[in-house]
Amino acid sequence: MRKTKPKKRILLPDPKFNDVLVTRFVNDLMIDGKKNIAYGIFYAALDIVEEKMAQKEEKSALDIWKQALENITPQVEVKSRRVGGATFQVPMEINPNRKRAISVKNMIFFSRKRSGKNMAEKLAAEIMAAYKEEGAAFKKKEDTHRMAEANRAFAHFRF
After folding, report:
1. Is residue 72 a contact partner of residue 103, using CB atoms and an 8 Å limit?
2. Which of 100, 106, 102, 80 is nearest to 91 (CA)?
3. Nearest-5° Cα angle at 119, 113 to 123
4. 3-state DSSP call for residue 81?
5. How confident is the model over 46-101, as pLDDT tens digits?
6. Can you give the three-state secondary structure of 20-79, one letter per residue?
């Protein structure tokens, strides 16, 4: 669309926790339109997290998951910008919707790459790792921040 931006679709909250962020996460987790299977995987992963961590942390599994997402959410990213024949990596702030999308996609991507029996276990392991500020998704965030910090000299090329 050249002129108008498409209007935002309103998502319905999920049935168990009544949370729109959970629905957004499950929509990204879903493959081939199998939403019930995606919900099953997500809820099973939260049950595993509850089993392993909730006693020590004094928090619900949903709160642990939200904190884990927050821990892997990047604040800045680098974008390529051509200036006079040279390409610079320019650090830029990320808008909140994109921050959320990046963190959700990273958590799902790196949990799929993990080794484990089933997707619920892999997702639970990634959630617990992100909560403890370790794991592949957290490392990706740290690398993004490090890259932005290294290229801070080019911040004046912002567009």
Report:
1. yes
2. 80
3. 75
4. strand
5. 999 998 886 777 788 899 999 999 999 999 999 998 888 888 888 899 999 999 99
6. HHHHHHHHHHCCCCCHHHHHHHHHHHHHHHHHHHHHHHCCCHHHHHHHHHHHCCCCEEEE
36 contacts 21 by C-beta, under 8 angstroms: no
Q: Report yes or no: 114 and 125 within 8 Å, Cβ to Cβ.
A: yes
Contact 122, 116 (CB under 8 A): yes
User: What is the three-class DSSP state of 157?
Assistant: helix
Asked whether the beta carbons of 111 and 122 are under 8 A apart, the reply is: yes
Whole-number Å distance between alpha carbons of 113 and 2: 37
Distances (CA, A) of 118 to 24, 26, 68: 21, 16, 20
Paired strand residues for 87: 82
For residues 16 and 37, what is the distance between their CA atoms, to the nearest angstrom? 14
Please, what sign has the CA dihedral across residues 11, 13, 15, 16?
A: positive
First-to-last C-alpha distance (Å) of the chain: 21
The span from the CA of 29 to the CA of 111, in Å, is 10
How far, rounded to the nearest angstrom, does the alpha carbon of residue 155 sit from its chain's CA centroid? 25
DSSP assigned state of 125: H
